[in-house]
Predict the structure.
Amino acid sequence: MSLAQITQVKALALAVPGDDIDTDRIIPARFLRCVTFDGLGEHAFRDERTGPDGKERAHPMNSAQAGKIAAAKKGVMVVGFNFGCGSSREHAPQSLWRFGFTAFVGGSFAEIFFGNSTTLGVPCLTLSKEDLAECDAFVRANPEVEVTVDVAQLTVSAGAKTWKADITASARDGLTKGKWDPIADLLEGADSVAKTAGGLAYVAGK
Amino acid sequence: MAKTLFQKVWEAHTVRKLPNGQTQLFIGTHLIHEVTSPQAFGMLRDLGLKVKYPQRTFATVDHIVPTNELKEPYSDPIAQEMIEALRKNTKDYGIRFFDTHTGTQGIVHMVGPEQGITQPGTTIACGDSHTATHGAFGAIAFGIGTTQVRDVLATQTLALSPLKVRRIEVNGKLAPGVYAKDVILHIIRVLGVNGGIGFAYEYAGSTFDAFSLEERMTVCNMSIEGGARCGYVNPDQKTFDYIKGKPFAPKAADWDAAVARWQSFASDPGCAYDEVVKFEASEIRPTVTWGITPGQAIFIDEKMPALETLNAADRQTAEDAYKHMKLAPNTPIKGTKVDVCFLGSCTNGRISDLREVAKYLKGRKVSASVKAIVVPGSQLTAIQAVHEGLDKIYIEAGFEWRGAGCSMCLAMNPDKLVGDQLCASSSNRNFKGRQGSQTGRTILMSPLMVAAAAITGQITDAREVFKV
């Protein structure tokens, strides 16, 4: 399986503010009633974007900027802290990715969300609190300026600004070397797997 | 060198180091359900791969099952499609399925322990964030995404990085009317909803030693609400007694060896922890959430926080929470009117929960203004409860007695809040829209507090209502 080396994502950005944005908000549970991930993109943040009356609410995902990202099928979402907390549903990053987001920049990410995203080839970079506030403000003030998320250099930059960013070493390695989906590596270790399994009595039902 | 249970289990299951520096970790037990597995089987088929160890994957159906009808096809055709997909996938690949007609179906985190599949010193993965529940037995149990479900199906391994270990010690005796649920809500309130990122939580101390396995499960279950991907309690005699005789427990000839092995996984005395946090049980009171994250919680007799007492980031989330919850800062939560009461979920839908509430419910009536439902977490729990006559107590009190499943914890089945109904819930998440209505409101609490809310029609102190 040959995967793209993801060293950099350069795209328009959208700020979706707030800490502790949970996966129920990103993709409400009723949209998990499915057997494929197809069509999830249109439901990303559905209940934040649409009121109970069916009318559009003021939400970044309803903006012209979001529309441009959806059309381009690439975009950077700038979020707060503990983004993607809650359930393990991969439907959450799948819906944002299918909407058009190809990178996340935030203060911190919930672990399962982080793993689900990077395994899709979608980098999640973290900035310090101060830098994130500056990046967020820049993105809102300059929606036409593309943001560069550099996984190799560990920076996020836009216009004349560059912020120092971070991601776990293993995710960075996987993304930049085109090995962000671990399945090939995991399959390669089959002999070692059998050896480990053989040493575990409970695997044999004992 | 003295080691933690986490380190020992990790080492015993390490296959090798991967080129990116992560560990290829063997997953001894894989649990699957209808929501996060169909896409994984789809990926498997697309890649032309097989299930490597079909006897180590166990399936059940829980999220979408209706709790008021067993007859198929279900009124929701998508739910029907999902259960049928799981039937086909488990049949095609030779995976055991605890289906609805077997009397063993239930929430995946109840089925594992009930069957004796959940054992100490093992690794467990499931495409569900509440997998940490199984840590109550001294297992290292992770919630995983669907692509990882594929990885486990295809290789029985995952690519993971080790976690740091934070020992959370609670010592002393809980006051009457204070439960395991209050303990975990309090821990999350203090350490924060993101305090556990990067950590496994080891729950210890005399309070946990005294807890039953079911109480330990309630606490481990909500580790993820505190940001910790897994949480565990070291195995002890209670753990072994719970497992003994269960269908998948080691047989008599293997039993002693299994117990010796399980004991050897417990954290060594004097082992090093990355962090230690201590709590006193006597300081914990019945706890309820007031906001839209499980960390936004107070003792029942406290006022909700005034905005000016919060730091900038918490304040923003609190403002959002007050708006959604239609509650006012710096006022008591006690007396808030309740529309729906939900007793169930993988946090608090076990037989001990149903027994404890029933003990106090006899002779009491649910308020006319409240819709109250009780949903046993599993069919075995329901059968046991009926055997003990608990169903009658609930029905006489005015609760609806339902079939097993996740139900109104996340409302993927027909059990949903309507409009801005406020629900007193024994479940684990109070996120906006969590219980099926985008304007619906959830207040998390212990099962007995749910019962007190049902009877009085408002958020109240169960200790007063039931003279605990």
Summary: The mean pLDDT of chain B is 97.
